[in-house]
Design a protein that fits this description.
five-stranded mixed sheet; globular; alpha/beta; single chain; 2 domains; D-Maltodextrin-Binding Protein, domain 2
């Protein structure tokens, strides 16, 4: 919640940085383009924060569609048209090898998994692996992304639950989200704890981020961008890619719970 209080100042910093960037290349284009962007859910808050200034600076418009990394891989492999995608590097490498991307993965961010409770509720102790396990076992219900939906945090967490020997105890209390925001289940009372990438937990008003899961079991997901081999607007997509890897994106990443790669 503290990070959110920086947003006004960060917006000013971003506008200043954008003004000074060499994104003038986009301003010199002959027409304003609609850029079709496919983005994994965890990175969406960053892209939405950068969108207004990018559109104002360039005249381009972003058409953003969000899904899990696994679902996006299937959509790109099936030939869905788009200009730029932000997903995991491994997914881009696989699809680049099959000719779906014009370039390999360009890292744009990384993010860890965190825990959230409904605002105003007591924060559990998650400072150690033992305390984290105790908090999970004590919770009435726990919301995560359904690993079957292809969400990276859900896949990792349920794999770790199995290794830790607590999956059997947690399955009856699991509230599995099909590629959405796990913390929304806190607001409707369906879950006591929500576990997901911090950027997605922070995107839910009314949720309070307790913190990251312990470092010993933390799993950072790296996100990367690539341009479609069949992009309708490759120059405009390149301008967006330049922004995502520029210093202007740094303050927004921090405000949204992410880190530079």
């Amino acid at each position: 919640m503290q990070a959110l209080s920086w947003l006004d100042r960060l917006a000013t910093l971003v506008r200043r940085a954008l003004t000074g960037l060499s994104l003038g290349l986009a301003l010199t284009q002959a027409h304003a383009a609609d850029i079709a962007v496919l983005v994994s859910g965890a990175y969406k808050p960053v892209l939405l924060a950068l969108q207004p200034d990018f559109e104002r600076q360039t005249g381009h418009r972003l058409r953003i569609q969000t899904d899990t990394a696994g679902a996006l891989q299937k959509r790109v492999a099936a030939g869905e048209p788009f200009d730029l995608a932000v997903i995991t590097p491994a997914t881009i490498e696989t699809l680049h090898a099959s000719g779906k991307f014009a370039n390999g993965p360009v890292p744009v961010a990384r993010v860890g998994i965190g825990v959230a409770v409904r605002k105003g509720q007591p924060a559990p102790d998650i400072s150690t692996v033992a305390a984290f396990q105790s908090a999970l076992l004590a919770a009435r219900s726990i919301a995560t992304v359904d690993p079957a939906a292809g969400g990276s945090s859900g896949i990792y967490l349920w794999g770790w639950f199995e290794k830790a020997g607590i999956a059997t105890q947690l399955k009856p209390k699991a509230v599995l989200v099909q590629g959405g925001l796990a913390a929304e289940r806190l607001l409707d009372g369906r879950a006591d704890l929500a576990l997901q990438q911090v950027s997605e937990l922070m995107a839910v008003n009314g949720a309070s981020v307790v913190g990251l899961i312990p470092a010993e079991i933390q799993n950072y997901t790296v996100y990367a961008a690539a341009i479609s081999a069949q992009a309708r607007e490759p120059a405009a997509a390149q301008a967006l890619l330049q922004l995502l890897t520029s210093p202007a994106a740094g303050p927004v990443l921090v405000a949204k719970g992410m880190l530079q790669p």
